[in-house]
Fold Periplasmic nitrate reductase, electron transfer subunit.
Amino acid sequence: MNKIINVLLALAISLPAFAEMVNTNETGGLDSLRKEEVSTEPQAEYMKQDQEGPAMGRDFVDMPPLIPHSVDRYQVDKNANSCLRCHSMKNADKWGATKIAVSHYKNRDGQQLADVAPNRYFCLICHVPQKDAKPLKENTFEPVESLKKH
Ligand code: HEC
Ligand code: HEC
């Protein structure tokens, strides 16, 4: 009986230490002196100020919206998609990010999937960061009246 109590006691003492170990690992070994949670991602507010002004909007129906924030260091490969950390249906509210379009959950045969369709996985094929730069080639394209920004 004593033995069991000893084992339980040892567990009770070591569990919080174990939990702390796991936590510190998640932040790459960083620990806050004030014992606050150490954020490993930039805050959404920061991202909003990060760019060339507010989102530029769309020039034609079905245009993939331009990205109004920096995409440096965001990993998108077969192992991870860091865009989904903020833009997935599940996480978007938390980050104040736009939810990815429902169209992104349909495969090319129009079937509704439970997760992002494989043909939408590599976001940067269609979405590019916005830039108020001089066009490399002259372009006389005019958006339809209903999409014009006045
Ligand atoms: C840390 C969170 C975060 C990550 C990671 C992130 N975004 Fe965003 N994204 C945001 C927020 C917040 C906004 C809204 C900014 C605004 O409204 O000014 C946004 C806006 C956008 C928009 C514009 C949507 C619209 O309707 O105008 C696109 C497109 C976009 N992001 C694509 C991406 C892509 C592609 C990646 C990965 C390369 C990515 N984002 C990674 C937070 C994030
Ligand atoms: C094959 C091209 C393509 C790929 C790949 C793609 N998108 Fe899109 N995306 C679009 C188009 C086109 C629209 C606008 C039309 C629509 O809503 O379907 C859009 C819309 C969006 C919007 C705006 C939704 C809204 O309600 O305003 C967000 C945010 C977004 N995409 C994020 C992403 C993220 C994150 C990824 C990667 C996981 C991604 N997209 C991959 C083409 C693409």
